[in-house]
Amino acid sequence: MAPDFRAALVAAADAVDTALERVLPKPGGAHARVHEAMRYAVFAGGKRLRPFLVLQSASLFAVEPEQAVRAAAAIEALHTYSLVHDDLPCMDDDDLRRGRPTTHRAFDEATAVLAGDALLTVAFEILADDATHDQAAVRCRLVRELATAAGSNGMVGGQMIDMLAPDKTFGADDVMNLQRLKTGALFEFCCVAGAILGQAGAEHEARLRDYARDIGLTFQITDDLLDVLGSAEKTGKAVGKDQDQGKATLVSLWGVDAARGKAETLARRAAQTLAPYGPAAAALQALPAFLLDRDS
Amino acid sequence: MAPDFRAALVAAADAVDTALERVLPKPGGAHARVHEAMRYAVFAGGKRLRPFLVLQSASLFAVEPEQAVRAAAAIEALHTYSLVHDDLPCMDDDDLRRGRPTTHRAFDEATAVLAGDALLTVAFEILADDATHDQAAVRCRLVRELATAAGSNGMVGGQMIDMLAPDKTFGADDVMNLQRLKTGALFEFCCVAGAILGQAGAEHEARLRDYARDIGLTFQITDDLLDVLGSAEKTGKAVGKDQDQGKATLVSLWGVDAARGKAETLARRAAQTLAPYGPAAAALQALPAFLLDRDS
């Protein structure tokens, strides 16, 4: 893997962690427990892929770093909320996340629901906070786009389908629709956020959306491959769950080799989509190969 | 009760219901179930007190009705999310709400969590949607204020304390702190939203916050009185729960008569606070008496 890519990923994680440390509420008051649960869930050593996408896409359009880091922190808070709620007993009922007890196991179910609610809420607060009059229109658009990507016709809709899926016979189109909603919409937001912040216009937004769709599906296929081929030790969560639950995935539908081949094709296309940006897009272009090679 | 007040309350309910019908997603796609649950929770015949507060406060400052109704719809979506999540088995574990099965009873727990998440998300989408460039700064501020009122140092923080409360010996100050967070912060947002939309300035905002604090506490005391004195038939939910759970309330701490006396004092002060607005504030001034007299 290109050392520049690794450096960019680490830099994004550092920048967003510093910002989250600052903007998340400090534990305090009779309700400090919910602040502690929010921080437990957020500071769990995630890869910070989504902040990386925001910061790198913003760097293509000369966005002020402070603005980009703010959007990245918002998206990571929102992403963390989705993990906390998805892990709940009434949802995926997971005990482990990134190798540690899930939030409802480390605290309790009520606290996990509330911490998730608060992380979703604070994401919008971060996006809307400290906006100058000139920035307000762009911030408003980010709020709207993030809400659309995360809401009932985006991430939440995808999780709804996922909850219903075991009852149904899903084909590849159904699985891709599920992926597009559950994880794809948020990847799209991350990639387009830089273009929105940089007021780059529709052509650039469309290009970054194309890239986001390809890496989103690459991410999902490699996630499914890890569920089949990975180890709980490396992935930090239970493996073989999809198979155990009889869930259709692109790997179960296409087979391991064909699914991997498809992911490789998507990864190549994603990198090519960003060719017009030249070397400035090198880290984004290296991401698909990283997704293919990851073991967690 | 003044007939004008009743008419204003019904008009607010009609206006916000029409808006919610338009802005909430129509059930569709493989994830239609979450849309259905959102609508089930929202269209349950609530009094629409919070939209009334938004519309009436907006009317003091010549806000365009369309802008005020938008904010009212957002707050009602957000309020509904809080009811859906508060009713969950891991929270208050309620089977009835407004005389009907709660959302997790009518659907299931996962769907209720997701419908709540989606209603919280759509509240911010509604606030940020269709904003002209001129409106963007005001909309941004509404997003920030709503997120602050609803988040971990507002409504969610209050619910966290409520979940912990049975373990503790609460005094009146603790109960009032809980109320201020759990329900007061959102009442404040509703009342100040009109002043924000009308760009009325700090003095008007402070006055409406004073009013909101008094009616918020009036509302809480009368809610506690209904829990002690009301009937399940009229309130549409279980009564006697606080007592059964040994929860401290202002009624249990002060006694029925003193609590009622305090609520009456607050109600009078709330009405007087708005005297500077003359007859334009008549409906807002009639609200405290309505809260005192309600039986549900």
From TrEMBL, chains A, B:
Organism: Vineibacter terrae
This protein's UniProt keywords: Isoprene biosynthesis, Magnesium, Metal-binding, Transferase
InterPro entries membership: Isoprenoid_synthase_dom_sf, Polyprenyl_synt, Polyprenyl_synt_CS, Prenyl_diphosphate_synthase
Cofactor: Mg(2+)
Protein name, UniProt field: Probable farnesyl diphosphate synthase
Domain of life (superkingdom): Bacteria
Gene3D superfamilies listed in its UniProt record: Farnesyl Diphosphate Synthase
Magnesium as UniProt keyword: yes
Cellular component aspect of the GO annotation: cytoplasm
